[in-house]
Amino acid sequence: MTTTMNAKELLHTYLLSIQNAEAAAALGADDGIIELPTVNARAQGVVAIQRFLNGLLTKVPDFRFENVRLDRNARPGIR
Length: 79
Prior knowledge:
Elements: H1 7-17, H2 21-26, E1 33-36, E2 41-44, H3 46-59
Antiparallel strand pairs: 1-2
């Protein structure tokens, strides 16, 4: 069964799922990408993203997102 989520729901679910690499990676498209340019890290595809998140959780077992605030007035690419 496929569940449809809007972008806000998808992001919220991802943030809450980050401690479960398989669940978090499964939220993305088959060719989805996670990229962290500040640490030169990039993974593409569900399997690679799951592997990346498992590695992250191995190094930082308590990794999670906290106090995330969404700014509905933010404009992409403008800081």
